Amino acid sequence: MLDHLPPPRLTKGKATEPSTSAAVAGEIDPTVPWYLQVCTLTRLRRHREALAVLRHADPSPPPHALALPSALICCAALSLPSGVAQVHALAAKRGLVPASDSYILSALLSSYCRLGLLPCARQLLDEMPAASTPPATVLTAFNSLISGCALHALTPACFALFRRMRVHVAGLRFNAVTLLALLPVAPATVVPQLQALAAQSGLASRTTVANCLISVYGRSSPTLARQVFDEMPLATRDLVSWTAVLSAHAQGGLAVDALELYRRMRGHGVEPDALTLVGVLSSCSHLAARSVGLDVDRYVRQRLPGFRANVQLCSALINFHARCGSLPQAQQLFDEMPRKSIVSWTALITGYGMHGHGDIAINFFQRMVSQGIRPDNVSMVALLSACSHAGKYEEGCKYFFAMESTYKLRPTLEHYACMVDLLGRAGRLEEARELISSMPMPADGSVWGALLGACKIHKNVEAGEEAFKHVIMLEPSNVGYYVLMANMYTDSGQQDGVARVRAMMRERGLKKEPGRTQVVRSSVNGRRPLASTGEENL
DNA sequence: TTAGGGTTAG
């Protein structure tokens, strides 16, 4: 079977293979039937080898049905649509599709979706004889297609299928897997509706469903995520629940709460894994919580021996060391990584940039580009910020203009804020003001705030007053800006100005918190929004 | 077989 497939290029079991050869040697027993070998190799993600076994399998008796889902998974993973079509034909010949075998049906649907062949998947579902197919199979088929559409962020299609399945699937209607597929792509207004549906159907008490809700709410509201977490019975919380709620707080800028959750998690005897530690390290970096971060570093080195191959964990460690530990440590980790992502590069560039090593930051940026990594918006912010901190006015301008012309990136508010900062620090307040006027979108608090900061450095009270007027309109409760303006008045001996700012703060019920004199980032900025494509209603 | 937790910016 599968004789039309291109021959596999057998890899030598290097870093791309998630399992070690010793583990495989233990699991692959040449005496077991070939179709079980296929299943095992597939589970180990050794797709090419699984297909090789399949290709050389004895064609009589005909291929065991158990091997077909594995074959499909391998073909999808290796982007072999012809292989999927062959298995489809084979399964059809043996009467396993469109209806009778739930495993093969959902594997086919998901393989077509993974390969982007959504019409094929759609057709398969439409061919399913609704009357004679067991309801559980219909449910699974709908779930597979909904998950496939979710994979391609086709929110309206997901919900259209969901409406259709609730009519079709007698009795069962939907299950936890349906909710898990829909929640991540649901528009913000629909998430609570799905949550209500989960509660009505008794699925809300499932750990997986609660975990998914925590993660989805966590993108926009750590508070809602926390509510779901708090309502979970203690015994049903698992490592994923803790990680999801912790990450929600870390992403929402609530680093103190994230670390408190970590402390509680450990108190309950739950051992973190790499994903948990990514969130913990992110919070340590924000808070400059050096001792906790160093504990995590030790834990990783002792308990997670393969951590260097984990790009996300390594990037988080680099970020931590670069921001509040040491640049040499960050650099060493970076050098040791077998594969680096744009995030690893950006973490390093940020680290050098924020410690005033603009030249090194620029050098790494250029090395990154020369290795074929196309800069994204975040790496450009890191670079421009590095230029700004090191007073590299000309380089900053050069890269800002290169964004659109060379890298095809449209500058966002963050980039404008960096440029206003760069121009402002260089004393070019007039140019900074002109840049703001030329922006294609209205300036936000961070842009005016950058100008205000520059005015403070260069003691330009008049320009500062204008920036202040704008910034407190945009972020009226951000104490940092009032403090900045008051300090400017103090520096220039204008006590009446200081009194005015203090009066404004009193009127607005704002207090300067001790030890918090820096400009506080607006909590809504930089947050991933909930998916908002289309107006979905259930 | 469909399915839950993640990193980088000022």
TrEMBL record:
Q: Which InterPro entries match?
A: E_motif (IPR046848), PPR_At4g14850-like_plant (IPR046960), PPR_rpt (IPR002885), TPR-like_helical_dom_sf (IPR011990)
Region spans: Disordered: 1-22, 510-538
- Which key words are in the record? Repeat, Transit peptide
Is Repeat given among the entry's keywords? yes
Top-rank taxon: Eukaryota
For this UniProt entry, the molecular function terms from Gene Ontology, in alphabetical order, are:
RNA binding
Q: Where are the PPR repeats?
A: 101-135, 238-272, 341-375
Q: Name one Pfam family in it.
A: PPR
The UniProt entry, under PROSITE patterns, shows:
PPR
Record field: transmembrane: none
Record-level GO BP terms? RNA modification
Q: What is this protein called?
A: Pentatricopeptide repeat-containing protein
Organism equals Hordeum vulgare subsp. vulgare
